[in-house]
Design brief:
Order of helices and strands: HHHH
Number of helices: 4
Distance between the termini: 37 Å
Shape: elongated
Length: 134
């Protein structure tokens, strides 16, 4: 069970939405010059927040791996230097790859929960409000 009840894992499905009550007034057409909430600027904000989230997580994990590869190829003396405990620098940096990737995943999830999910929830609420207005 998730520690966050509002968060669903990818293999879980959300319960069906409750039926919408009939609206007492018919939907009024929106003039072309009037801003419809959630139309463009909110979607743009959501896309840019998600894009920034993907870039940070990807560059963290791939950047560390690229640094490891570059050091392996360009500085073999540094990577082969002995450390206390019988490890060399290359092996230690290779073993640190997994924790760095796990930290990138944790930062991705936390950032998504605090930045992307509120924007998505706001758009979802606005969409349900428009649907109820019909």
């Amino acid at each position: 069970m998730s520690p966050y009840p509002e968060y669903l894992y990818p293999w879980q499905s959300s319960p069906p939405a409750p039926p919408l009550p009939p609206h007492p007034f018919p939907q009024q057409p929106v003039p072309a010059h009037q801003h419809v909430p959630g139309r463009h600027s909110d979607l743009r904000k959501l896309r840019s927040a998600y894009r920034r989230l993907r870039r940070v997580a990807s560059l963290t994990a791939l950047g560390y791996f690229t640094l490891f590869l570059l050091l392996s190829g360009l500085a073999p003396g540094l990577m082969g230097s002995e450390l206390p405990g019988g490890l060399n620098t290359g092996l230690l940096l290779g073993l640190c790859q997994l924790p760095v990737t796990l930290v990138a995943i944790a930062v991705y999830e936390q950032s998504a929960r605090h930045r992307v999910d509120p924007l998505t929830e706001n758009l979802r609420r606005q969409g349900l409000g428009r649907r109820a207005a019909r």
